[in-house]
């Protein structure tokens, strides 16, 4: 019994093993031939793999629906990226592709066909794109001559054999796990020296090698202008400026290495532990992370506690507690005045590197203090008692503590701050509850990376062997399982999901506090509907926003976010742009653009138009609104990446911008709000006004399709014509009427179109009297005809939204 089961298991393992071989042989290629392409869909399978399998190239997920085309280390656990083609412009997760075109260029195109990146090799006899064992992606001709190679376009990482040169520099990423270019550079400066530089929006400065020293004190040379540096497979880096360093595991050629300019501004050499998939730092440029410039922004101070941490000095507050590179600002902002207004706070063991106004030696402390006191631009001064060195500072950057050689900074602050400090005997660093650690990946500099080949080695081999056997077994079983059960290939492959921190261009996650601030505590309510209240707000970057507080949502956070990721990538000029969301229990908020002219119902149904001086919506605008809304719905129904029924089309959900261009809002909400309840329940919860809901939605058991929106749109068309709510219209006509009877009556009227005169007068009676006959008869007649078809009780007889939009567009320019 037992042995049979074991046999069975062995067979299963063998089968999965064989299927793995078949899978890898069938799927993985290292060459993309001319005319071939790689699609973003099934990104985990659509990859080029170098012949030895050490590198992979394909689409790399940076966030929901945002992908880059990249080369990564196959064996590293988090699929560390070595090179990125389009680091600053990720492409869409659906429909994007990388293609070696017949004209010879390798291009990356977005879902809409736009070329996002190209090797610019069109017109060459390029025959293939190939991923080499070195991690170099090359475009070559039939004879093997390289026409283009990724080694010539480094991003933030050098691989063994890949040089940094006069023209090629490394640029850090902007944050952990994000591909975007950051502010740090590794490059040859104009005097042929390899440098690390912070090149921020306000300042730029070099911090490695030590900027205090002359180049000869740093053991470099400025006389070799060939400007070339690289490391070899043994882990030895050499450069033309005589920079030379070795990996701590130097000599081991079987190890894969990378030299990466990390997002925290430090340059590190890493070795891959292939069995565990983890990286070890084997060399680091800046031993003390706080010596990297720009980390804590202007006026910020970096300290070790025990990791690098940013804080503001006393009298200063953070500009943005979530992004310390934005630094601190003075509060209160007192710049000068006599001794009764300002004073100096002593900050021992501190330095703010750079930005000295001038440098004077042999002055007394009081003279130095007076120099800074009298100069409104002076923010602080440094003083060394022994030598009488005095250096007033015009700006405070690159602050760090503690430093060597020791020195003291005297910071100019308002006297009130100083008094408070003395009374509370508080520290000169002002943490304000905001102190946060500068994230550092393998910060274990110094001792930890130096371990290695010692007498533990036998055990290490022994356990490694066991571990490898176990890992290999586990991989076979897992891969076999995935293969057999056809699990989601993306989930099986390497996926990195940064919590939707970025989805395509602007879509992002907001914190509740951020939105509370932006809306002044949700004070300015601009609308209230069945799905929640809407508040006006302004983001820190000046964008006006509308924040919708979603009512009772029962579904899980992941579901909410995955629905949002669909909504977030919808982009159409007649749909309100969704900029982000907030999901912090119990709050669920949706952030969208603010549309200035309010909703259509306010513009259309204001009865007291004449008395209050509000201008009646003119015919041109009404027609434009009809066309715009039709386009938006057609887009949602037919063109959108994911098919969406709005389910709540009504004037309240049609917003008007400055030019009375309509923007439909609340699309996709029905999906957000339904899920567990089923669409009928959801619909009745979502519905604002009865009059707009298609009849089939009231009957349980009938499927709800896009035709429900067509019905609602028909009602809106009638209201645009009439300038009155259809329910009021029906009620006024005759108590017993309903919309169906009104539609039938209108249909009858339209049929008798032989007498143009008669139809014309009849139309004038029907169309909004406030227009005083100033409307386009052809357009009005067409709108009416469409409206009557749209509100047909039988969904199948209603036209599609595409047909409606086309009809309206065809008459748009009729005068
Ligand atoms: C291709 O050419 C464009 C436009 O000149 C340039 O921006 C881009 O960097 C080039 N790409 C490569 C990989 O050479
Ligand atoms: C330069 O080399 C000398 C001799 O090897 C060494 O003592 C010194 O620390 C080096 N200087 C720097 C800045 O690395
Ligand atoms: C300059 O540097 C290059 C590359 O490191 C080296 O091959 C060359 O010999 C150097 N030239 C001189 C004059 O030192
Ligand atoms: C690196 O190793 C080489 C030997 O390959 C040695 O000559 C050199 O001095 C070492 N450099 C440093 C900085 O340790
Ligand atoms: C691929 O990686 C393995 C393990 O790290 C290493 O032994 C092998 O030399 C690498 N192959 C190449 C071509 O670099
Ligand atoms: C330094 O600058 C201060 C203020 O700008 C000025 O008063 C002083 O004379 C300067 N000292 C030197 C030595 O230039
Ligand atoms: C601090 O104490 C001084 C007297 O020692 C007093 O004048 C000042 O108002 C106090 N400041 C605060 C903020 O309490």
Structure notes:
The chain has 815 residues and is of the alpha+beta class. It folds into 5 domains: 127 residues, Orthogonal Prism (Agglutinin, subunit A), CATH 2.90.10.10; 126 residues, Agglutinin, subunit A (Orthogonal Prism), CATH 2.90.10; 134 residues, 3-Layer(bba) Sandwich (Hepatocyte Growth Factor); 45 residues, no CATH class; 213 residues, Transferase(Phosphotransferase), domain 1 (Orthogonal Bundle), CATH 1.10.510. 26% of the residues lie in helices and 26% in strands. The strands form 11 sheets. Strands 26, 27, 31, 34, 36 and 37 form a 6-stranded mixed sheet that branches. Strands 38-42-43-41-40-39 form a 6-stranded mixed sheet, sandwiched between helices. Strands 3, 4, 5, 6 and 7 form a 5-stranded antiparallel sheet that branches. Strand 26 and strand 27 form a beta hairpin. The radius of gyration is 34 Å and the shape is globular. The N and C termini lie far apart (88 Å). 40% of the residues are buried. One 2-acetamido-2-deoxy-beta-D-glucopyranose (NAG) binds next to loops.
Offer a few descriptive terms:
45 strands, 815 residues, Hepatocyte Growth Factor, 5 domains, Agglutinin, subunit A, 6-stranded mixed beta sheet, binds 2-acetamido-2-deoxy-beta-D-glucopyranose, alpha+beta
């Amino acid at each position: 019994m037992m042995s049979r089961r074991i046999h069975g298991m062995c067979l299963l393992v063998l089968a999965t093993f064989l299927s793995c071989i078949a899978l890898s042989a069938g799927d993985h290629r290292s060459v993309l031939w001319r005319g071939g392409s790689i699609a973003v869909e099934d990104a985990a399978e659509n990859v080029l793999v170098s012949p030895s399998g050490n590198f992979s190239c394909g689409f790399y997920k940076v966030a929901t629906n945002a992908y880059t085309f990249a080369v990564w280390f196959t064996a590293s656990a988090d699929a560390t990226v070595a090179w990125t083609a389009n680091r600053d412009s990720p492409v869409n997760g659906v429909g994007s592709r990388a293609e070696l075109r017949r004209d010879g260029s390798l291009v990356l195109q977005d879902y809409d066909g736009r070329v996002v990146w190209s090797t610019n090799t069109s017109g060459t006899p390029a025959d293939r794109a190939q991923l080499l064992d070195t991690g170099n992606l090359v475009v070559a001709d039939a004879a093997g001559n390289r026409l283009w190679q990724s080694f010539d376009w480094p991003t933030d990482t050098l691989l063994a054999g890949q040089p940094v040169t006069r023209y090629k520099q490394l640029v850090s990423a902007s944050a952990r796990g994000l591909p975007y270019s950051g502010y740090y550079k590794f490059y040859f400066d104009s005097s042929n020296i390899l440098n690390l530089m912070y090149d921020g929006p306000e300042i730029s400065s070099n911090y490695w090698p030590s900027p205090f020293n002359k180049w000869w004190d740093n053991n470099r040379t400025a006389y070799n202008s060939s400007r070339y540096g690289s490391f070899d497979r043994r882990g030895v880096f050499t450069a033309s400026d005589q920079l030379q360093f070795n990996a701590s595991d130097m000599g081991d050629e079987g190890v894969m290495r990378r030299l990466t300019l990390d997002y925290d501004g430090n340059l590190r050499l890493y070795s891959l532990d292939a069995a565990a998939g983890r990286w070890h730092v084997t060399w680091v440029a800046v031993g003390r992370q706080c010596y990297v410039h720009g980390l804590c922004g202007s006026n910020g101070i970096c300290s070790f506690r025990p990791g690098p941490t940013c804080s503001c000095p006393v009298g200063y507050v953070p500009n943005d507690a979530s992004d310390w590179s934005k630094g601190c600002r003075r509060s209160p902002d007192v710049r000068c005045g006599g001794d009764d207004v300002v004073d100096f706070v002593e900050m021992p063991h501190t330095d703010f590197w750079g930005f000295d106004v001038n440098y004077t030696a042999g002055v007394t402390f009081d003279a130095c203090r007076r120099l800074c006191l009298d100069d409104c631009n002076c923010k602080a001064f440094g003083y060394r008692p022994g030598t009488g060195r005095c250096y007033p500072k015009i700006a405070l950057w690159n602050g760090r503590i503690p430093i060597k050689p020791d020195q003291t900074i005297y910071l100019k602050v308002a006297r009130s701050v100083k008094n408070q400090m003395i009374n509370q005997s508080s520290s000169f660093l002002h943490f304000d509850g905001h102190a946060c650690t500068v994230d550092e990946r393998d910060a274990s500099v110094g001792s930890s990376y130096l371990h290695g080949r010692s007498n533990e080695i036998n055990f290490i081999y022994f356990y490694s062997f066991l571990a490898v056997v176990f890992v290999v077994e586990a991989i076979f079983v897992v891969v076999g399982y995935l293969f057999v059960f056809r699990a989601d290939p993306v989930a099986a492959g390497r996926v990195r999901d940064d919590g939707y921190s970025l989805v395509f261009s602007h879509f992002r996650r907001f914190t509740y506090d951020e939105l509370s601030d932006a809306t002044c505590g949700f004070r300015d309510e601009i609308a209230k509907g069945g799905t929640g209240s809407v508040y006006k707000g302004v983001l820190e970057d000046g964008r006006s926003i509308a924040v919708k507080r979603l009512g009772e949502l029962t579904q899980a956070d992941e579901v909410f976010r995955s629905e949002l990721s669909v909504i977030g990538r919808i982009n159409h000029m007649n749909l309100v742009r969704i900029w982000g969301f907030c999901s912090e229990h119990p709050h669920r908020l949706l952030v969208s653009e603010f549309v200035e002219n309010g909703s259509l119902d306010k513009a259309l149904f204001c009865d007291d138009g004449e008395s209050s001086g509000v201008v009646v919506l003119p015919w041109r605008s009404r027609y434009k609104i009809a066309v715009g809304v039709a386009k938006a719905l057609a887009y949602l129904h037919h063109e959108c990446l994911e098919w969406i029924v709005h389910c709540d089309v009504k004037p309240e959900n049609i917003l008007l911008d400055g030019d009375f261009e309509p923007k439909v809002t609340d699309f996709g909400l029905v999906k957000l709000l339904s899920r567990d309840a089923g669409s009928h329940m959801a619909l009745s919860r979502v519905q604002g006004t009865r009059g707009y809901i298609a009849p089939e939605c009231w009957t349980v058991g009938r499927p709800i399709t896009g035709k429900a929106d067509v019905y609602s749109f028909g009602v809106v068309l009638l209201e645009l014509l009439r300038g009155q709510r259809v329910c009021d219209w029906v009620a006024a006509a005759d108590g017993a009427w309903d919309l169906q009877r009104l539609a039938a009556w209108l249909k009858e009227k339209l049929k008798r179109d032989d007498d143009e005169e008669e139809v014309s007068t009849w139309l004038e009676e029907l169309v909004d009297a406030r227009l005083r006959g100033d409307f386009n008869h052809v357009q009005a007649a067409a709108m009416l005809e469409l409206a009557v078809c749209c509100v047909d009780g039988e969904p199948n007889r209603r036209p599609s939204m595409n047909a409606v939009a086309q009809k309206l567009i065809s008459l748009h320019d009729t005068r």
